[in-house]
């Protein structure tokens, strides 16, 4: 879930408005309404064994529903779902819950996680999503072990292409949504490594008409937010492009967005560390790419992706590519990724 940068929040700016009243949002969406007792049964009474993860405003549990009727079923029967339960009394969590319903209840895309339904009963607020069995991209990059193996070059390309398509769709003229919290933990993977964007709690409508930006309280995740957004509170689609560039650098290098073990303070952010490499094109690929990827990529293809990532994290927003251009370049590399240089 998104977190607010309390130390840099402009207190003179009002909180982003709740998209609509709950009843208006729920009436305008085609989502299933679950009772609290149904979801309690589906998750074994929200047992610890069913927990998939925790966020700033609640926890996520594995549950089960009937594939046809979408009615909650006993654990182990039907199809698996992810059930997010909001902590009672969380005002910011309530806003994020409503934003999720507002956006995911209206949009559909192969690379955006499907919201199946919700529960709004008393103080209880829950959301039911499709289950993504391979978990988050963050797990596969940084929590390697017996279960999480290093992703191959081909799979990394597949994941970033899918994630890029999700952002390109959100930025399109027909949708105009700024995601605002793009990071590896919000990119979920299906059984066949199809990437899907999740957690729309702090997404915002993009600028309309002649407006170039939306002015809003700074929210997001440290290390991924665009510098101009942090400095001015001006939010544009190019802020998402910067965040995508950070994730692309993480995917290429296997390095986290922030690593305080790097000696120089200016190198602790992967976006700044990588920028230092751009002045030596001959060594860019060798120094940037994860050692586990050796022999899996063509030098030309890796170079194109590395340079694209550096363009995305440019300090000048106007120098960053659009997400549509990002998709085009990544797909071109993907098409030629079958002939690695040994």
TrEMBL record:
Gene Ontology cellular-component annotations: plasma membrane
E.C. number: 2.7.11.1
Signal sequence segment: none
Keyword Aminoacyl-tRNA synthetase part of the UniProt annotation: no
InterPro entries given in the database record: Kinase-like_dom_sf, Plant_Ser_Thr_Prot_Kinase, Prot_kinase_dom, Protein_kinase_ATP_BS, Ser-Thr/Tyr_kinase_cat_dom, Ser/Thr_kinase_AS
Keywords: ATP-binding, Cell membrane, Kinase, Magnesium, Membrane, Metal-binding, Nucleotide-binding, Serine/threonine-protein kinase, Transferase
Residue sites binding ATP per the record: 84
Active-site residue list: 181 (proton acceptor)
Catalytic activity: L-threonyl-[protein] + ATP = O-phospho-L-threonyl-[protein] + ADP + H(+); L-seryl-[protein] + ATP = O-phospho-L-seryl-[protein] + ADP + H(+)
Domain Protein kinase as annotated: residue spans: 46-339
Enzyme class: transferase
Family from the record: Belongs to the protein kinase superfamily.
Protein name: non-specific serine/threonine protein kinase
């Amino acid at each position: 879930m998104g977190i607010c940068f309390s130390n840099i929040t402009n207190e003179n700016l009002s909180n982003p408005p709740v998209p609509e009243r709950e009843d208006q949002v729920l009436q305008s969406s085609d989502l299933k309404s679950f009772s609290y007792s149904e979801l309690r049964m589906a998750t074994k009474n929200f047992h610890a064994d069913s927990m998939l993860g925790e966020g700033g405003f609640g926890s996520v549990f594995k549950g089960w529903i009937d594939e046809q009727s979408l009615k909650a079923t006993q654990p182990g029967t039907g199809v698996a779902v992810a059930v997010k339960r909001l902590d009672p009394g969380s005002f910011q969590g309530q806003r994020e819950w409503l934003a999720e319903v507002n956006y995911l209840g209206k949009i559909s895309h192969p690379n955006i996680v499907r919201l199946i339904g919700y529960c709004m009963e008393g103080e209880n607020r829950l959301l039911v999503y499709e289950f993504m069995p391979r978990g988050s991209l963050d797990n596969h990059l940084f929590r390697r072990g017996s279960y999480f193996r290093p992703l191959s070059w081909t799979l990394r390309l597949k994941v970033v292409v899918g994630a890029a398509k999700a952002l390109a769709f959100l930025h399109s003229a027909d949708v105009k949504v700024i995601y605002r919290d793009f990071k590896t933990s919000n990119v979920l993977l299906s059984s066949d490594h199809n990437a899907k964007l999740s957690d729309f709690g702090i997404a915002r409508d993009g600028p309309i008409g002649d407006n170039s930006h939306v002015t809003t309280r700074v929210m997001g995740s440290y290390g991924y937010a665009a510098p101009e957004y942090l400095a001015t509170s001006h939010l544009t689609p190019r802020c998402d492009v910067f965040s995508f560039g950070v994730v692309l650098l993480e995917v290429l290098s296997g390095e986290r967005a922030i690593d305080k073990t790097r000696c120089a303070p200016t190198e602790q952010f992967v976006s700044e560390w990588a920028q230092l490499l751009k002045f030596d094109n001959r060594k860019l690929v060798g120094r940037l790419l994860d050692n586990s990827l050796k022999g899996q990529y063509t030098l030309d293809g890796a170079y194109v992706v590395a340079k694209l990532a550096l363009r995305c994290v440019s300090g000048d927003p106007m120098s960053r590519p659009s997400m549509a251009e990002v998709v085009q370049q990544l797909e071109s590399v993907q098409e030629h990724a079958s002939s690695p240089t040994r």
